[in-house]
Predict the structure.
Amino acid sequence: MKLRDKKTALLLIDLQKGFSEESHWGGNRNNPNAEEKALELLTMWRSLGLPIFHSIHSSRDPLSPLHESQPGFQMLDDLVPQPNEPLIIKHVNSAFIDTDLKAQLDAQHIKQLVIVGLTTNHCISTTTRMAGNYGFETYLVSDATATFDRKGIDGKIYPSELIHQTALASLHKEFTTVIDTASLLEIL
């Protein structure tokens, strides 16, 4: 059975303008085409009439590029929700905490999720873990997510691609199936 036959929802996370301020997030972002891949999937979901949910981060820190008073809070122009696509506003890493996302998914009897967005090791990881723990059949699209360099507790800089790959490895086959865009479209 194809994913489209299971009423699989697409969940787009934190595709906001503030992530263009790379130095704020650690610099050296990997996977520069993640938003393009997310848009490809969004376009396909819309064409098939499948459920779509958007989640954005509303930081409580007024200096954050993702604070609602900052221009970076806004979603990327090509990925703005249509009127029938719910927008979930979150204040923490998971799109499930202190939001009605799970209730909306349950109300529509959605059991399968495809997750894309930013950043792999933060909001994507946290939301994916919770989706898996809630029992959703979850797919995380590896080339439709990205992250930045991270500084370790010893001051060492860990490159974004390493962070991305280890985050994906930690999630795969435990909380989700990690898959790329092309492979996902084959099973859609």
